[in-house]
Amino acid sequence: MGSVNTLSEAETVIAGFSRDDKRRLLTWLAREVDSGTGSINKNSDVMNGVACVRDTRIPVWLLEQARSQGVSEADLLHNYPGLTAEDLVNAWDYVAVNHDVVDAEIAANESED
Q1: What is the spatial distance between Cα 34 and Cα 31, in angstroms, rounded to a whole number?
Q2: How many domains, in total, are found in the chain?
Q3: Are 36 and 96 in contact (CB under 8 A)?
């Protein structure tokens, strides 16, 4: 019963939200349900197990590093024709949820150079 009351109370509160706040809430809920992964996969046999886009060898950390250096999404899509805009959204969602891991992967890659 407590859950039903809590959900009913949440519905009442959410009904009072602005359209923008509802959109932000929906985005947050989608990330919570999906864990921000979407088409992001980890496979211990591919790229040492780092998160990659779909069935590619394109690591999320590489995309995030490029983005942090000012590479636009349009350029990423042009340079990696196998990627889609949805792949980038999923990559950015993964980064938002796993920022410390991605930062460590970028740092590890930079130390190898």
Answers
A1: 5
A2: 2
A3: yes
